[in-house]
Amino acid sequence: MRLTVFGATGGAGVQVVRQALDAGHAVTAVVRNSGGLPAELRDRADVVTADVMDPGAIEEAVKGRDAVISAIGTREGRRPTTVCAASSASIIAAMRAAGAARFLMVSAAGVAVEPGDGPFTRYVAKPLIIQPLLRHGFADMRTAERHVRDSGLDWTIVRPPRLKDGPGKGEYRKAVDGAVPGRFSIDRADLATALLDLAADASSTGHMISVTA
């Protein structure tokens, strides 16, 4: 596949770029600073330095691609942020202008109570602990998800739980339009594996996919 990855210097984005290159895909990594991408990946990927918030600056980077993946996340902690919403809107505008169709965006399991959530998660963990603690970031992600669902693109929203930096197992569990019960974390390497699998899986189009270890 010909892939474009946004958020390519982040923890999940680096894993997506690495695994995609290792699998023989052609990868365009869109970054603010190319120095944030490991040297061995810079040598193998087409690295584009651009402002993701400017649709015109990224249009060429998404043109002719089989799939576009956004692994952009906020680094604002618990402060108000619009980075996910603004970047998703910009990427969608660029894809429409370029005639690109397949878009996958990483969100988060905590943004909503979902079918498959156990009683503790449904009534305590999400509404009383996780969502109030991370309310600004989740509000940003909900807006981003709305942009994606309304985009008219061939979209898939991927909701992982807590992300870890382990080596990964090369496998994961998933649920369509609901939560995977009983698991609460995933290695970024396994999230990357899931994203690449889903990029090639037409049946995931138009769905929210939960993934976990």
Automatic annotation (TrEMBL):
InterPro entries in the record: NAD(P)-bd_dom (IPR016040), NAD(P)-bd_dom_sf (IPR036291), Polyketide_Oxido-like (IPR051606)
One Pfam family linked to the record: NAD_binding_10
Residue span, NAD(P)-binding domain: 7-201
GO molecular function: biliverdin reductase [NAD(P)H] activity; riboflavin reductase (NADPH) activity
Superkingdom of the source species: Bacteria
Cross-referenced PANTHER family: FLAVIN REDUCTASE (NADPH) (PTHR43355:SF2)
Protein name in UniProt: NAD-dependent epimerase/dehydratase family protein
